[in-house]
Amino acid sequence: xxxxxxxxxxxxxxxxxxxxxxxxxxxxxxxxxxxxxxxxxxxxxxxxxxxxxxxxxxxxxxxxxxxxxxxxxxxxxxxxxxxxxxxxxxxxxxxxxxxxxxxxxxxxxxxxxxxxxxxxxxxxxxxxxxxxxxxxxxxxxxxxxxxxxxxxxxxxxxxxxxxxxxxxxxxxxxxxxxxxxxxxxxxxxxxxxxxxxxxxxxxxxxxxxxxxxxxxxxxxxxxxxxxxxxxxxxxxxxxxxxxxxxxxxxxxxxxxxxxxxxxxxxxxxxxxxxxxxxxxxxxxxxxxxxxxxxxxxxxxxxxxxxxxxxxxxxxxxxxxxxxxxxxxxxxxxxxxxxxxxxxxxxxxxxxxxxxxxxxxxxxxxxxxxxxxxxxxxxxxxxxxxxxxxxxxxxxxxxxxxxxxxxxxxxxxxxxxxxxxxxxxxxxxxxxxxxxxxxxxxxxxxxxxxxxxxxxxxxxxxxxxxxxxxxxxxxxxxxxxxxxxxxxxxxxxxxxxxxxxxxxxxxxxxxxxxxxxxxxxxxxxxxxxxxxxxxxxxxxxxxxxxxxxxxxxx
Length: 553
Prior knowledge:
Layout: H1 3-25, H2 30-38, H3 44-72, H4 80-87, H5 90-93, H6 96-119, H7 124-149, H8 151-214, H9 238-263, H10 271-275, E1 281-285, E2 293-294, E3 297-298, H11 304-307, H12 312-327, E4 335-340, H13 347-360, E5 365-369, H14 377-380, H15 389-393, H16 399-402, E6 403-404, E7 417-420, H17 429-433, H18 436-448, E8 451-455, H19 464-471, E9 474-480, H20 486-498, E10 503-509, E11 520-521, E12 524-525
Parallel strand pairs: 1-10, 4-8, 4-9, 5-7, 5-8, 9-10
Antiparallel strand pairs: 2-3, 6-7, 11-12
C-alpha cells in the first residue's frame, strides 16, 4: 500500500541531492565549498579588517595626544605634574628606555618610604635617595622627548597601514556580498534535501511497523477474576499518622526542653553558689510579694523580719545571721558590704532585713545607704533621704542629725537599728566612697556600732561596691534564683578578687523550691515551724535591665 509513495519519495530525494551537487560543482573554488559546508559567517573577514581600522584610529589619537603633551613640557624637569601625565601614555610606556627609568624611580620611591619610616627625613641616607630620585627626572624627561621625535615617523606608518587596510576592506566586502548570496541559495538546497530525506525515512518506518503488526502472534491471555473495588482508602492511615505524630511531638518537645535547660546557665539551686560561683552559701531567702495580706497585715518586704519575726522567711534571715557569725569573723565582723552583680537582684531588701535581724539579736546596727547613684533605703524604710551619708562626709551635717530610726507600721521603732540614708545627690560617688573622709567615717563608726551594713551599688555597672569592700571587713553577694547568669556573677566576683577584697559568701534570693513539699526543715515541714505558716511569694525586685529599681522589692 505504501510502495507507490515510497518510490515517488525516492525520486524526490534523488532530485534534491542532484540539485545540491550541481550547485557545488559550479562553485569557483574549493575554499568556497568548505565555507558553505561549515556555515561560517561571510562577514567575519570584514569584521577583522574593521577592528584593525578602529585600532589604527585609536593609535592615531594617542599619537596626537602624546605629541601635544610632549610639546607642552618645559625646558627642565620641574614641571613634574605634566611629566607624570605624559609617562602614562601608551606610546611613552612602550619605550624601553622609559620603562627602565620608571622602574628605577619606582624602586627608589619604595626605598625612600621605607627609609623615612626607619630613620626619618633628615637622615643622610634619606637625603641621598631623594637626590638620586631628582637626578632621574631629567633623564626621564629626555627619554620622553626622544619618544616625541619618533611620533611623525609613526604617523607615516599608520597612514600607509590605513590605506592598505582600506583597500583590503573594499575587496573583502565585495567577496562577502557574493558569499552571502551563494550561501542563501546553498542553504535552501540543503534544507530541501533534509526535508525530502525526513519524509522518506518516515514512510520506511511506517512500512516496518505494518510488517511487524501483520506477523505478530496472538497471545492466550484471559481474565481469571474481576478486580475488587476497595471500600476504604489505602492512604492516609489516620491512626498510624496520629501515633507517629504524637511520638515525634514528644521527642521534639523533650529535646527542645533539654536543649533550653542546657543553655540556661542561671543560678537555680543553693548548691550552685558553691559549685559554679565557688563562694560559701550563707543562706536562702524565699520569694516575698509586696502587699500580701498576712493575718490582716500588709507585708513590706524591706521590714519583713520586723513585721513577722516568727515566720519561716524570718528564719531564713536568721540562718544568714548565724552563718555570718560562724562563717565570717565572729566578733571581728564590724563592717559588711551587701551588693549584687546587676540591678534587680533584691540587695536593698536583703540588706534591710539582715540589719533588722542583727538588731533583734541585740547588736547595735547602722544600716548605710551607700548606693549614691540610685538610693532606695530611704524609700524602703520610710525615712528622709537627706541629711545622709554625703552630707556627713562633706561636713554639711552632724552624724547625730543624719542618723534616723525606721518604724514598722504601728509597732514603733526597731530597737538597736539605726539608718543613715544616702543624703544629698553627689556628682562623683566613686571618688567620695574612696576618699579619706570615708575611711575616717568607717573607723569612727566601728567604735560606736557593733555592725555596719552598707547597701552598695551593683558591681558591674559601677565600681563603688569594689572600692567600699576594700575598706570593709567583707562583702555579701546577692544572687537572684533563675535570673542571675553564672558568667555575669563570676565576672562581678572577679572584681573583688582583683582588689583582694574578701567575699564572705552569697545569698540566693527569690528561691522557690520545686515540688509540693516546698522547703523542708530537716524532719518536718518548714511551713509549720513557728507562729506563721505563710510562705508568701517573693516578688520581682525590679527589672533585670534597669539599674536602681530595688525599691520595688
